[in-house]
Amino acid sequence: MIGVNDFYKVMCAMVPLYFAMIVAYGSVKWWKIFSPEQCSGINRFVAVFAVPVLSFHFISQNNPYQMDTKFILADTLSKILVLVLLSVWAICKGQLDWLITLFSVSTLPNTLVMGIPLLNAMYGDFTQSLMVQLVVLQCIIWYTLLLFLFEYRAATILIKNQFPGNVAASITKFEIDNDVISLDGRNPLCTESEINGNGRIHVRIRRSTSSAPESAFSSSIGITPRASNLSNAEIFSVHTPLHNGDIPFGHGDLGVGFRAASPRLSGGYASSDAYSLQPTPRGSNFNELDTITVTTSGNTPMWVMSPVAGKVFKQASPSSKMAWESSCLNGERQGYRDDVGEKEISFRDISNFPVQEVGAADSLNTNNIIKQEMPNALVMLRLIIVMVGRKLSRNPNTYSSILGLLWSLISFKWNVGMPSLVKYSIKIISDAGLGMAMFSLGLFMAIQPRIIACGTKMATIGMAIRFIGGPLVMSAASIAVGLKGVRLHTAIVQAALPQGIVPFVFAREYGLHPDILSTGVIFGMLVSLPVTLLYYVLLGL
Questions:
Q1: What are the structural domains, with CATH classification, of the chain?
Q2: Which residues, in sequence order, are bridge partners of residue 337?
Q3: Which pTM value belongs to this model?
Q4: CA distance to 126, 266, 364, 444, per residue, from 532 (Å)
Q5: pLDDT tens by residue, 476-503
């Protein structure tokens, strides 16, 4: 039975966290104490030092040889169950976007910042070890899987836009420039395609200004790439597009950060408005042509897709090597390069035009539109693994989680203690991490135009999934693996924690339902305390 003292203990753990968040909110919204530049510094500290060190502190103190197998199995089973159900639905309906969003909303709570202090106050010190185990799984497995899904979605969009129809099926290799960190559209990307005599396509993905042939950009406007954010996890106002000149800051595990809203830009999430400086494409030199014949040595004609409004051109020899630069994601001009004649031809974006078939008499069949195809699964897998690896390698929280896990494996295996100098150096920053994480969240809340950014109806559905659907699935999975007593209650309550920040980081970066995830973070924080207290009381009866 839950008594008054138990309730007071829980409030003593939670009120200070909400106090830090409210003070930060008021400092920006009401009292105007912090300027955007000052907020940038605060969030930069949280991103690079506070939360990663906080993660390392908790993970390194947890004994990995005494993991609660049933508790971890219940959490893993609940996530797999949700993922399988959503995957079946997505395959039937073709709704990959909603699969990603609903998986984020229903299964990825704010475990590190909210879960550890709340459940520690509710059920005791042993819950800290359980929450740390979930944090490790989230950082290493589930956030990586989520990032994999986002990169897969971004890759399919890039391929559909730049290789429409059945052309993509001939792609056998992707080469990615070293400065391409992600396909999320935050940096304008272009592709260069090379076709060999067998019709196989090799694609090079690059930033619009990286390693570009001089002739391909002789008349275009240069863009200076923005320096990489160490955390690679920035959060912005949900209605403020990313663009050069904004003030970057972010925050590690929470991923909290924002940029100053620019009055010059309107809201939106797509990659097309991610930058304020967009070169103007040159007009096509052959807009009126239906077909183009490229004369080379040989007598056998070969029809090849032309980057001219989805039309085709005929190449005389299948052994001749040719390449074209496909449409840039950010509206840059494109060009076709004939490797034989060293001649450049300009053309316009063809991403919205269907690919048309060539008839038996070498004429266009305007009645048939070729179905969009994708490259071989292994080709796509290699592309996505490279992108995910590069994304993770620039997130400090990746290193803090892995180093914390490695240290715990070593220290508990051979009973090695951390040197006092290192221990107290880490502790002094990690002690600030929890409060600064909540403070940073308050700054994030203050810059949002609305608490319910996605509308009342969608917010209601999202909250129902987060605070009802999540605990119900966790309850079923926990009971199925034989979890009982306090550990069962802990599993259910942690599933009712507010929405995690990292899913919103990804949603904002990749332009996928950021308004829904933003509402889940902000509104979820406001209603999570009464909801978790309600579960705590009901489970204690």
A1: 4-155+396-540 (1.20.1530.20)
A2: 323, 344
A3: 0.75
A4: 19, 37, 63, 23
A5: 999 999 999 999 999 999 999 999 988 9
